[in-house]
# Entry
Amino acid sequence: MLRALGLGDLLAGIPALRAVRRAFPRHETVLALPEALRDAALATGAVDTVLPASAPGRGVPVLTGWTGGPPALAIDLHGNGPESHAALAALRPGRLLSYARPDPSVPDPPRWRSDEHERERWCRFLRAYGIDADADDVRLPPPSRPSPVPGAVVVHPGADAPARCWPAGRYAEVVRRLAAAGHRVVVTGGPGEQELAAMVASGAGLGPEHVLAGRLPFAELSAVVAGAACLLSGDTGPAHLAVAHGTPSVTLFGPVPPRLWGPPPGPRHAVLWHPGPPGDPHGRTTDPALLRIGTGEVLDAVLERAVRTRPAVRHGEGTPAEAWGRA
# Structure
């Protein structure tokens, strides 16, 4: 299977990956994606082996790392273009499933739809090829390690592109008011986002001990999100991780509407979005729709979910494990 994209793409693809695992229980399942996502891929329980593969941007990698014989089946979960189809076809699989150049033996092959949610897109694709897939099958197993900050509100201000980044000053204002309301808050960030995370924390009057940024291993990030009272972020990987762990979340959308990439409907997850003209999710400046989201509405959404669920651990209330049990 080829899905050499980002963390959010991988997690949105969990239902499709699980469907393939169930349909072919006696096969070894190999997923081609960036090496940095190895642990996340294996955590899905749907992948036996990772084939490291990446290309600049969201390009299609050449699968030169493949050293086995022709696979029995190759599945293009990467996109709808001929490039990803060709990358898998070069392995000479027994059968190749893709949107591009669909299998001629299928009487009603899948057609790409631009107005479809990412999870449903790939489940519908597999169903067209006779593989039963459930778009709601999104959950990950609980992390094997406990959260180092159980019950905290986790704020993740970064994203792969500036277009999906709400201003750091607004995040800082929300963090400051959450801390003033008695919530423990930590700010997370991926590689290259240490400065951004530190800026948000210091702007809120918090010290460096509230910052968990840099090359945070997936297992630790997963534990932090799973144990959070609420996750606040833009449309990026940790938002999908909150869905995978059932953690309450508030996600800020701008260039892409939540009907395409948002969480499942329900009170656990809030999406904030002010409709407008479609934007570029990979743009170099913050999308105008994202800028229309105010700090007050973000704060209210986080407070509603954090209070409803797991209370912050405060001094004198017992160990983190005891507080987690009470919650």
The chain has 13 helices and ten strands. The longest strand covers residues 185-189. The two ends are 39 Å apart (CA to CA). Confidence is low (pLDDT under 50) at residues 310-327.
